[in-house]
Amino acid sequence: MKKFRRIGAIIIIILLLSLYLICFGAAVSGSEKLQPLFKITLGMTVVLPVLLYAFLLFLRMAKDRQGPVLIPPKETEGAQEGEQS
Q: What's residue 14's pLDDT?
């Protein structure tokens, strides 16, 4: 699990850095053709970390709920004695 997180973090860092570079390049060029690309990369630099946070929050909540969904009720000693008499 630790290795999976580390690989995922490296991928996200590379993806965010590439989005920043593309966004910067599109902004500096000033070309009308690159304006949609600028808007997309600018939006993704905000959306990607939010989605990552939501995914990690979901994983943390799922990890805490790994027990059985339905737990059968425990029988008390009094109920067992009543059945025997």
A: 92
